[in-house]
Amino acid sequence: MTTHPSPTAPPPPPPADAGAPGNLAAHLAALAERRGWTDRAAFHQGHQGHRSWTHGEVHELAARTATVLAGHGVRAGDRVLLALPDGITWVTAFLATARLGAVAVLVNPELPAADHAFMTEDAQAVLCVTGPGLEETEGEEGRFAGRPLLGADQLAALAPTAEPAATAHPVDAHTPLYVQYTSGTTGRPKGVVHAHGDPKTYHDLIGRRLLRITEDDVTLSVSKMFFAYGFGNAFVFPLFSGSSAVLVDRRPTPAAVDELVARHRVTLIYSVPSAYAALVSDRGSGHQSCFASVRAAVSAGEGLPEGLGQQVAELLGAPVLEQIGSTEAGHAFCANSLDHNHPGTVGRPVPGFEVELRDRAGARLPDAGQGAEGVEGELWVRGPTVTSGYLNRPEETASSLVGGWLATRDRAVREPDGSYRHLGRADDMEMVGGITVSPLEVEAVLRTHPAVKEVAVAALTDDRGFSRLRAFVVPVEPPRAGLETELIELARARLAAFKAPRSVSFVPSLPRTSTGKLRRHLVRQGAW
């Protein structure tokens, strides 16, 4: 095991906040007052005048925003759909919904109209708060299923002068707070319900204990707040620690990341492997001075390809901490930390969570000390923030949540030090000639070729009905003659014959979700 040294010694874990969460919005406002954070910066708007808001301003604006939402008919228990880009309006609209005891439904504003309509109807939203370009759809039966709309610009204009600022509706830690939809990498998204007490737990177990976030940290999360990973990084951790986050309304380019990190002296970067790969592309992995303030980077969403983590660490001059989580768990349930970083793994179980490896039938595999190391299985997890179920999906809830344990459908193997090495999704496996093949294994080999920028492998049925592996390759530059043959021969030299792709298709890009995950069900169709 190797670790990449941090440029400075990591700070000690800050003290835990012992207050009971109750209503999240009220709890955070009281916490900022009690800790003296009201005049400290909480959020910096990345590309809109570079304005900053203090913790005090955020909570005051959120209380007035709640008054506006109440004026639009929102009551305790109602669901409010937020189709907003990252920004101060997203933050205050979420806190306002929480303050009213209503439930925020977090969706990507860039989804197709059919997806927005499905989520609006599925959640039975009473109001949709929409970002730029979506306001004009009011009254249509299409994008938001005819529900009342409130545009972000309209909300931002009304909130500062709304009187009186709404008081917090009494709730407990188990009252539903928000619904977040799964990313839809394998089919139709499902709404996952989380409660008022969950965000504090994300911070206590991960932000405070593993990442040691203090009020002096500045966060940049490339992953957005509608995604479970980004929600914790850019919303929860800053508000619970008195620190600040840089909010960007769209995924920043590598050049924009450089500029934002340097401008705001970012200390923590959170991203996904594809964005980290873009960051190191075309400039090597040598340390850049614009990253001098960075003390750690976190990667999640997909496994880091072999070697990429070290390249990113060298570029940033800081350790890269890989972790794994899920929408159902709310945030990470296995993670590397500043004290224990095992590159190539997703780390050890987060304190407070239990992790087991099970076979396809759900039977538990051997524990540590009983031959568990080296045995592959599917990850099952139990912990304090695992959802109680999917919205309107009792059958899927029953199949995925058994006795408090969540079947993640992630495949992994346990390392001797207790870390887990991620082997992909159970649904990612391909069947070729009656033999199961992991596409990740084939992709890892093909990615070693210098002409390959990205690659995805899937089994497609040929004209005769036979299943054949095909590699879809995004080349570094226009493919030269003979490159397909080189790639197939490379695979044959490194892998068993049945694992080598029979053909290669060169494509300009791979199909990914807005959070950067590969949409393998589209790759299997052979066109997107």
Explain the overall architecture.
With 528 residues, this protein is an alpha/beta fold. Among the domains are: 51-171, 3-Layer(aba) Sandwich (Rossmann fold), CATH 3.40.50.980; 429-523, GMP Synthetase, Chain A, domain 3 (2-Layer Sandwich), CATH 3.30.300. 27% of the residues lie in helices and 23% in strands. It is built from 14 helices and 25 strands. It has helices at residues 24-35, 55-71, 88-99, 113-123, 152-158, 198-208, 228-241, 254-264, 273-280, 308-316, 394-400, 439-446, 483-494, 520-523, and strands spanning 41-45, 52-54, 79-83, 103-106, 127-130, 149-151, 176-181, 191-195, 218-221, 244-247, 268-271, 296-299, 320-325, 332-335, 348-349, 354-358, 376-382, 401-402, 405-414, 420-425, 430-432, 435-437, 452-461, 467-475, 503-506. The chain has a nine-stranded mixed beta sheet with strand order 2-1-10-9-11-12-13-14-15, sandwiched between helices. Strands 6-5-3-4-7-8 form a six-stranded mixed beta sheet, sandwiched between helices. Strands 16, 17, 18, 19 and 20 form a five-stranded antiparallel beta sheet that branches. Helix 7 links the parallel strand 9 and strand 10. The protein is globular and about 70 Å long. Residues 1-7 have low confidence and may be disordered.
